[in-house]
Amino acid sequence: MSFRRTTPGQLLLFWFRPTLVLWALVSAGLMIGIRWALRGWPLIPNYLPFDPGFVIVPLAAVFWGPGGVWAALAGSLGGDAVSGLWGVLTPWRAAGGFFAALTAQQLWQARLVQEDGGPLHLPRWGQTLRFVLAAAPACLVAAGWPAVGADLHQRYPFVYYAGVLGGHYLIFATALGVSLYRIVAREVVAQTGEWREHLALDDGRSRVTFLRGALVLAGALGAPLAGWLTARAVGGFSGGAPQMLGSGGPRAVPIAALAVLALQAAVLLLGGGGTRISSSSR
Q1: Could you state, in order of their start, the residue ranges of all structural domains in the chain?
Q2: Domain 3-274 has CATH 1.10.1760.20
Q3: How far is CA 6 from CA 97, 202, 250, 272, in A?
Q4: pLDDT tens across 46-73, in order?
Q5: Looking at the predicted structure, is the pLDDT value of residue 1 above 50?
Q6: N or C, fewer C-beta in 10 Å, the chain?
Q7: Which helix (DSSP H) or strand (DSSP E) does residue 202 occupy?
């Protein structure tokens, strides 16, 4: 397999495409700006931001591909810096944004049963539903990584933190994402072209195999499930009541969730993109 067909290859090739770099900067700038504007309204002071701008993560990943992945990483780090939340959970939150964007990108590209061509960015309800189905698991991934960090550092239990943050992300990714997807598909991508064109990737028949897409989805759903089941098994927190700072649970809970997230990250990074490189480059 050519390196340019792999996920790392596409993440590297992105830096040589000015149009994608520009949209990545715009996306990251919007995420940072929203975090700055809402810096005084955290969900949990010093640890959990109020962040409706998270909807940009799956949108940017779907529309700008690897550019959206880098934008999610930069937006998370920059958002923590400008909102006063830079601290022990910052790298965990950044990892969550990075892998959430990869999750949304690859689930969007995943081949469905009897699907000959790849998905197009069209303002139609079928593609809008596909976006929601790619964004929702990404929300769980984005919440899972910082929830692991919060529990390992004895800040908050994994199940509590992941539940609050995951629900928060899901609300905005679906409520705002539906309209924003259709607007960007109609007004922006129709003019600029899809990210695969800018990376000179042939439209092909299958961008991500069904099996690989299923593994990515299983990892996104499996991490919170593993944490919850482990919490039930070892007598840790299993849901419901508000938690106080410093009330982390048994170490087995975040370790179980982290194991699933790490396996999903390996699938996201080590697999091929399922596309062919065309002979010309934009």
Answers
A1: 3-274
A2: yes
A3: 20, 14, 37, 4
A4: 778 899 999 999 999 999 989 999 999 9
A5: no
A6: N
A7: strand 201-202
Say what angle helices 177-184 and 56-64 make with each other, to 10 degrees.
30
- The predicted structure's pLDDT at residue 126: 86
User: Does the pLDDT of residue 274 top 50, yes or no?
Assistant: no
d(CA 276, CA 9): 13
| Alpha carbon distance 278, 204 (integer Å) | 10
Q: What's the chain's length in residues?
A: 282
C-alpha to C-alpha distance for 64 and 4, rounded to whole angstroms: 17
- Residue 162 near residue 227, CB atoms below 8 Å: yes
CB atoms within 10 A of CB 89: 24
CB atoms within 10 A of CB 26: 15
- The pLDDT score that the predictor gives to residue 7 is 82
Confidence of residue 279 (pLDDT cuts 50, 70, 90): very low
Are 139 and 202 contacting, i.e. CB atoms less than 8 angstroms apart? no
Instruction: Tell the residue number behind the tokens 């990545």, with chain if given.
Output: 24
The stretches of the chain forming alpha helices (DSSP H) are: 7-13, 18-37, 56-64, 66-83, 90-109, 125-152, 158-175, 177-184, 190-192, 195-198, 210-234, 252-270
* DSSP string of 138-201, one letter each residue: HHHHHHHHHHHHHHHTTSS-HHHHHHHHHHHHHHHHHHTHHHHHHHHIIIIIHHH--HHHHTTE
